[in-house]
């Protein structure tokens, strides 16, 4: 993965330029406290403290004496996160230090937004650097914010890398590198060994690819509550024999966004040395087309023993996740979280910016919502609606991987996964998008982490850390 040293704070504040981050309603009062020269200069520049606006004020000899950052009015602040990220990309090169007063939550958002604004994907093309650096604001946990930014950068790098360089083998290599960097253990079951060790659906979905399927298993930590993260690692999804149209296949390099997100979250957890026992499971496959590809109307027997009728080979993510979830459920953790770019129905329901989640655990749901608000990582709970269970029961087998009719596709997929988690009371499933369709502050167009920061913020309360 790339070197992201720019996603760290400046080490010293000697000579740092004072940075005043001001909302539109606070600008007038601030100007009243300044000298006539500063007031006249700022007004002459037309600075209104609109969101993302920048104004530099010269001092003796023309050097920058201070800088102003616009945070916008209440409406714009409610509509857009990370106004400081826009500021960071507009300021001249140099080191800056936030001088204005803010709440702890605001300072955390400003600090994280600044670091996230420094991300560029440069594997294939050099991008212009953003050379405005920030001194970590007083009261902000530097290690935590830098760990979050690094985890997010890892997620983005993995999703942005095309399948030609991010197949199941390369995803394994990234997982191995992460495990090594944190002293974690890793075990990988590959190819026909999946059948020997009873992961039949992972093998079936991935067997048509030139790169063998595999199950990646990372463990870390020796004490505390147990947490399992399961991430969908479909490195490219053609749709299989139910092949996708070209327009729908164009973004399928991101179909491993669940695995990318859990690896980014795992980095955050390990870098911060949270007192828990972590396990990360990633079924890594390509859903390809060949003579041995699985077919519509095939009936598969899962690791758990449940049979699954295949009514669409393009509903493959839930199949590979099912075997991984069943494995984790055999030694029930205190909390199990599944993350996947699973259904288009989730995007129709909440769009690309919100992470919908399902859980029967009220404590986790409450902790997650609170954490999401704290770290500007929006989530929304959808229901495990039991009456829809009949929609995933085809009659000829225990389960249907692609119910007809099109209703409640996000919910039926979640219910399908829940069938494989029978021993773990505390289970949550996230149906994320993993892609930023248009650039936004701190989030360039491309791969993006969703839900990881909210989960990280929720863990102390959810697991009593």
From TrEMBL:
GO terms for cellular component: cytoplasm. Pfam families: Peptidase_M17, Peptidase_M17_N_1. GO terms for molecular function: manganese ion binding; metalloaminopeptidase activity. SUPFAM superfamilies: Macro domain-like, Zn-dependent exopeptidases. Keywords: Aminopeptidase, Hydrolase, Manganese, Protease. Residues 312-319 form the Cytosol aminopeptidase domain. Gene3D superfamilies: Leucine Aminopeptidase, subunit E, domain 1 (3.40.220.10), Zn peptidases (3.40.630.10). The keyword Protein transport does not apply. GO terms for biological process: proteolysis. Belongs to the peptidase M17 family. This is Leucyl aminopeptidase. It comes from Litoreibacter meonggei.
């Amino acid at each position: 993965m790339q070197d992201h040293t720019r996603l760290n704070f400046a080490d010293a504040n000697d000579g740092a330029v004072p940075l005043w981050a001001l909302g539109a309603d606070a600008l007038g009062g601030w100007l009243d406290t300044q000298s006539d020269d500063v007031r006249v200069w700022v007004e002459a520049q037309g600075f209104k403290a609109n969101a993302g606006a920048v104004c530099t004020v010269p001092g003796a000899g023309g050097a920058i004496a201070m800088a102003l950052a616009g945070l916008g009015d209440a409406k714009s602040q409610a509509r857009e996160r990370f106004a400081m990220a826009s500021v960071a990309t507009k300021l001249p090169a140099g080191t800056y230090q936030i001088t204005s007063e803010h709440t702890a939550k605001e300072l955390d958002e400003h600090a994280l937004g600044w670091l996230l604004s420094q991300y560029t994907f440069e594997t294939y093309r050099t991008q212009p650097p953003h050379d405005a650096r920030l001194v970590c604001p007083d009261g902000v946990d530097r290690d935590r914010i830098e760990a979050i930014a690094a985890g997010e950068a890892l997620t983005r790098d993995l999703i942005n890398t095309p399948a030609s360089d991010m197949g199941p083998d390369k995803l394994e290599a990234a997982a191995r590198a992460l495990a090594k960097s944190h002293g974690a253990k890793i075990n990988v079951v590959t190819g026909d060994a999946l059948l020997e060790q009873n992961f039949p659906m992972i093998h079936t979905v991935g067997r048509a690819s030139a790169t063998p399927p595999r199950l990646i298993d990372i463990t870390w930590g020796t004490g505390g509550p147990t947490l399992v993260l399961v991430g969908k690692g479909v490195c490219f999804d053609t749709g299989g024999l139910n092949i996708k149209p070209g327009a729908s296949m164009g973004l399928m390099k991101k179909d491993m966004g669940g695995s990318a997100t859990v690896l980014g979250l795992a980095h955050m957890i390990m870098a911060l040395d949270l007192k828990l026992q972590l396990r990360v499971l990633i079924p890594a496959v390509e859903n390809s087309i060949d003579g041995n590809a699985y077919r519509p109307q095939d009936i598969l027997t899962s690791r758990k023993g449940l049979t699954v009728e295949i009514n669409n080979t393009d509903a493959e993510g839930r199949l590979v996740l099912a075997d991984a979830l069943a494995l984790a459920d055999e030694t029930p953790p205190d909390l199990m979280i599944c993350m996947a770019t699973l259904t288009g129905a989730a995007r129709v329901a909440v769009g690309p910016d919100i992470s919908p989640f399902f859980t029967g655990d009220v404590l986790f749901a409450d902790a997650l919502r609170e954490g999401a608000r704290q770290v500007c990582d929006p989530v929304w709970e959808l229901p495990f609606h039991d009456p829809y269970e009949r929609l995933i029961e085809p009659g000829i087998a225990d389960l249907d991987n692609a119910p007809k009719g099109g209703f409640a596709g996000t919910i039926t997929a979640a219910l399908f996964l829940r069938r494989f988690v029978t021993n773990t009371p505390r289970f949550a499933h996230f149906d994320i998008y993993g892609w930023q369709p248009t650039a936004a502050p701190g989030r360039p167009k491309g791969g993006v982490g969703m839900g990881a920061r909210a989960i990280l913020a929720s863990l102390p309360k959810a697991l009593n850390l």
